[in-house]
Design goal:
The chain has 14 helices and 11 strands. It is an alpha+beta fold and 311 residues long. The strands form 4 sheets. The chain has a 4-stranded antiparallel beta sheet, with helices on both faces. Strands 10-3-11 form a 3-stranded mixed beta sheet. Strands 5-6 form a two-stranded antiparallel ribbon. The termini are far apart. Bound molecules: iron/sulfur cluster (2 copies). The site of one iron/sulfur cluster (SF4) has 14 residues, from helix 6.
Length: 311
């Protein structure tokens, strides 16, 4: 087995804040299994994190919607670029084949636990000592057999079960013993349908929810984000009247290269989110009246329903 000293030193040189290694068995997948796994026998997984800034900003103008901190820039792309550079160094040193998953095909959270990088909190999110849960994860699978770090008992009991995330979850998606994805505002902001019970707690969400992270004491005194340049910046707020009349192509162009360009976030979902936020203020509802006459047909019913509910 190969020592991970060189690997971890290189990772730090590339400003990857924390990297640990796990055995590659077993692997589970979020999406279709890539061809790489049909021709290469995986031996190790190199799991890394990228932290991101976490200021809990809310718009003061009702015509703006909020973006959750993890999506304000494309932190996955930032980490992926660093992982690709790390692979170049590892190939030169050890040879071998490598596959990167960063918000990709692999289920990265269980790998972070197996590597002893972090552990699940009550909020079902991975938290890491020194970084809390304001992180994105990425994994590199290789047929080179690096020495695994293994899980850490100390890290596995990191969440101290204070229950604040459960108590403050706006939609009651989180319970101490369960999580209901269909109630979670993060999930609901990715789909075009509206769920009646979520409307009264929606607030100013244009994309994402991070309440169960904002209230978590594990996120106090975490390492600051220190990158000088990031990719795919959107910022914390989006002006919504511009969004609701856009075509799919215009929305794709507006958010090209950002976290909102992911294939599973439909343009209709983003317009629906904007309509919900706008329906909550008199100024915003003016745009909904226009939308009912001139907006996309598939969402006019939703706009009418929102006007009925909030007017
Ligand atoms: S993301 Fe928001 S809605 Fe989902 S579990 Fe956390 S606090 Fe609840
Ligand atoms: S808020 Fe409390 S219970 Fe929830 S993840 Fe953080 S430490 Fe654990």
């Amino acid at each position: 087995m190969i020592s991970t000293d060189y690997l971890k030193r290189k990772a730090l040189e590339l400003q990857i804040p924390n990297t640990r290694v796990a055995s590659a068995f077993p692997l589970s997948f979020e999406r279709a299994i890539p061809d790489f796994f049909k021709r290469v026998e995986p031996k190790s997984v190199i799991v890394s994190l990228q932290n991101y800034p976490s200021e809990p900003l809310l718009p003061s103008d009702p015509l703006y919607g909020a973006i959750a901190p993890f999506a304000r820039s494309n932190y996955y792309r930032l980490l992926r670029k660093k992982q690709e550079k790390l692979i170049k160094s590892l190939k030169l040193e050890y040879g071998g084949s490598y596959y990167v998953s960063c918000n990709g095909s692999l289920r990265e959270k269980p790998l972070a636990v197996r590597a002893g990088l972090g552990s699940y909190g009550f909020n079902r999110i991975i938290s890491v000592p020194g970084f809390g849960s304001w992180i994105v994860l990425g994994a590199i699978v290789s047929d080179v057999e690096f020495k695994p770090d293994g899980p850490s008992e100390q890290i596995n009991s990191f969440c101290f079960s204070c229950g604040l995330c459960v108590e403050k979850c706006p939609s009651k998606a989180l319970r101490s013993d369960s999580f209901c994805r269909e109630k979670c505002l993060q999930y609901l902001s990715q789909i075009p349908e509206i769920v009646d019970e979520a409307l009264s707690v929606w607030g100013s969400i244009f994309y994402g929810c991070s309440v169960c992270q904002s209230v978590c004491p594990l996120n106090i005194d975490v390492q600051p984000f220190e990158e000088s340049s990031v990719f795919g910046g959107i910022g914390a707020f989006v002006y919504l009247p511009d969004i609701i009349f856009m075509t799919d192509d215009e929305i794709k162009e507006r958010f090209r290269g950002t976290q909102l360009a992911l294939s599973w976030i439909s343009p209709e979902a983003l317009i629906k989110n904007a309509l919900i936020v706008l329906s909550q203020s008199a100024e915003g509802r003016e745009f909904l009246y226009k939308f009912i006459k001139a907006g996309r047909l598939s969402l006019r019913n939703i706009a009418a329903l929102l006007l009925e509910r909030f007017a």
